[in-house]
User: Fold these one by one.
Assistant:
Number 1:
Amino acid sequence: MVKINRSLLFFFLIAAIVVISGCAKAECKTSSDCLSRQCTIPTCEEKKCVYGSQPNCCGNRINESIEDGKPGNQCTCPADYGKCEGKGKVKAGARTEDAAYVRYYCSADNRCVLGVEKNDIIPQNFLDSINPGTFQASSVIKYNKPFDVAKDNFEFRIALDNTGKETVLPIRLAKIKLLFSGESARIEQLIADQDMDYALNGVGDSVKINVPLNLNYRPKEAEEAGSLRYLVDYTHKKQVLIGKVNGTNIFSNETVRAAFTAPIKPVFFVRSG
């Protein structure tokens, strides 16, 4: 039997590997010979292309403050940060549930924000009749469902429909208040209080009033449903009979100050940002 010298066999094996390696085709001579790959910087090292990560490039799987020249976040570089998506969360007792309207989306200035997209907003209109006896008016309140407390307004249009014989125009609208009660709350909260000076000078006159939530109300959760009512303070004068002179009635103008309280309406508040 022929005995194989292990040392000699090992030597020939190494030599064969060196020869084969020397015969292998070189990948590159310079870095420009290397293929371009996204978010990498190619260099030619020992005839081989080596790819290093390119900084501040969206797609290098690194969260960086600058991505392709823009501030890095989920909206400017979802490839590195992940997508800006998903529903917000609200607490329901001891449970945490998905929000009905609030979700994460990319704003116009490329920020991942919590809010409501335009397609999910439904404008609502409610008509109230005002009839204190001395005049008749109609009030239409318009607001969104859901209502974003950070940027939405309540819009009112109040029109004078009729007046009594004793009513002296104009009807002046002096103040409007909004009160809110959450579904689980036992008390009402004043969420807007706005002074104003509008005059209804005749039948058919109307005024438009925009009322923001100006008392820093913010829902505890991202969403809060409840009930809303509003009060409108108004003043006007009316003729009051004070006597007769030679059979002619004598009247005096008396100032009337009162408030109209609207019926309760449903409202659904959301907190964006």
Number 2:
Amino acid sequence: MSTHKNHPFHLVDISPWPLMGALGAMTMMMGLIKWFHLFNNNLLLVGTTITILIMYQWWRDIIREGTYQGLHTLKVANGLRWGMILFITSEVFFFISFFWSFFHSSLSPSIEIGMQWPPMGITPFNPVEIPLLNTLILLTSGLTVTWAHHSLMENNFNQSLQGLTLTVILGIYFSILQGYEYIEAPFTISDSVYGSSFFMTTGFHGLHVLIGTTFLLICLIRLYFNHFSNIHHFGFEAAAWYWHFVDVVWLFLYISIYWWGS
């Protein structure tokens, strides 16, 4: 591909990754359905493996285009910023639907669940135990990712590496505690609308934490290999935005489901 052009836009090359990524995601979802119904996770493992491999190669190509070929100009980066803003906005509405479901069920409990909230037979989590610890972990990780971002803007790469490493560790720690909480849960996703609302909302948030941790881990590796400068680091900026979004969602989740809802 020729890098000589008289415009600031990025005309992308033909790539197999969008189509293959869609096929991998479809295989993964079909495997998930098969796992739920037949308790056989073979197709799910195949789909997940395909999706991870395609993500790696697609991300690799984008890094090459933006870092080594210089195709992510200021104009292109501005478009990527708007794309990330709109993506996070769509995620906000995604979580609003879960909170709507929770409050619809909790503010006017139906006769099927004993006209009380939490429903009869449900023992909710103590909000000042693991949930409070997870809240402190995510708030601390928000501080460390901001520290890393500001250090990068000030050309302090050592402190930026330290802050980003701490953020990734805290993200992994949060996921471990969330997994432990699920294992020790006194109710399941099948236990009334409370169980469904709780596990759907916290589960999807946990999935976003895993995605955000992966995003930040990739940024940590790129930072180690000097892919970012103090003025050109949108990949890191997008990861930080996403992480702050995850933080804010957790605060609403903790207050409404763990504290008020219990």
